[in-house]
Fold:
Amino acid sequence: MSDHALTEEPLQFGEGGRLFGILTLPSMPPRNAEELPVFVILSAGVLHRVGPYRLHVRLGRELVQMGFSSLRVDLAGTGDSPPRPGLTNQQSVAADFADVLNVLESRLGRSPLVLVGLCSGADNAVRLSLKEPRVVGMVLLDPVCFPDHGLRGFRARRIARYANPARYNIAWWKRRFKSLTRLRGEKQEADRPVDPLALRDLPDREQLRAAFEAIREREGRVLSVFTRYAHGYYDQAGQLGRALGVNGYKEFCTELFWPEVDHTYRLELHRVRLIEEIKTWAGNYIRDSGSKRCRASVERAPISPGGHHSP
Amino acid sequence: MIEAFFFGPSNQQVFASYHPPVDGGSQVLTVICPPLFNESVRTQLALRDLAISLAERGQHVLRFDYRGTGDSFGELGKVAISDWVEDIALAVREGRDLSGSSVVRLLGVRAGALLACRWAGASGDVQRLVLWDPVHDGAGYLQALRRIQGEIIERDLPLSPAERRETLQEHAGHRLSERMVEEFRLLDASAYSSVPKSRLCVVSTSSEAGFPVQGVPQYLARFACNWETTLEGLMMPKPVLERLSTCLTMP
Structure:
């Protein structure tokens, strides 16, 4: 399929064509196509490649307007990719990713990659980035995080937040009022504590740190966005950077905290905001590519007798 | 093995997956008209499983996404009901071309049932329509989407007054065009009554569901589908899928 700016192609790949994904390509590849990373958008949780509220489809089609190709993929067990029996989740995701690398290499060459993942997709992106040197970027939507400055600092901020008569407090009173006026059965169901991380196969702190360090060494970038879903374990912008203690974190990482936004970006204005943020962040790769080309052309240029680069 | 492809007008192509019959196959083509919005995501896996099971029983099956939804092209805010009804017509034509089938059956899920009957009533080209929890009419369905929207907004999302005003225009997190809303309101139960009763078959998950046209065979397959929800969990309603499969494969 193609329209004026893009082409989309359904791909069935891997052993027996068991994996399914849709490759989005610019109709007119940009001059620096080989330098630009390809975005691999991993399926989120049990949802298929389209993503919540069609987020992945729209993201891929927006990025292609900037020249970025992308593959939105159904990992095994989601959408149109059947499960891999007998493998653990991590083994299955690793096998899927090996197939993704092969198909992308056969179609686009050995391009650098950016992994995009929401929720468990973020967990997978972290583990895969660690091992694959072609990954030069991660977009992590509600990744795991750990308390910074020890648990005491994290708890102290939570207490301070509830003592603050700002919007959180109003929200708390609204919830309290609702819970008191709800029928008994309803109340028990709704008030049952839910640990948002309990169902996820999380990377540990060392894996998370190592993935960030690997991206730094590859001169890549990371964008992390935390929403209200993360409230139980994340409550202040910058917490991830402090918890990881990775050198030069601020130079290659962008960390955002959007406590007013839902985990799956249910409102259109929040989806638009996220896509714009990712596009702005992705623009850095185009600038990098431009400056690398400038540097390369300067290095290739003949040296004038005076020892200066010719213009 | 499925065959996935795009078809239709070059600037707004529709995404489809074709499941060929496993063993040679019959002359029957089933086109699945999915539900809309959140319901389509929640039922994606179930409808895929149903398609595989029908193909194993010798049918040609085509699944597709309406324009502006799923993997299809187009923006939701720019399409209307008439586009979706046209998509059903295109899907049936495409399915016939691919399979060479002479007998067409449709499965319509929720609002997909209303759209399928809207098209089938005018075309007379369909041997059987199986409807899973059909919505009764467009106006009632829009109201349900608005109630979901209210729930989303009330989940303590701190929005500015301008954001709140903007968000209040959405339906269950989706921004629809004015034309779409207008056309939805005009979709009433006459879409169902325009199809001969002998061709209709309803599968309901609740005994309270009812159907606006009397005298249509209605089967109960109990399952808590909980359609009017903000939840995004997938559903795998085995009893419903078995019943749908039986209705779609009966001679």
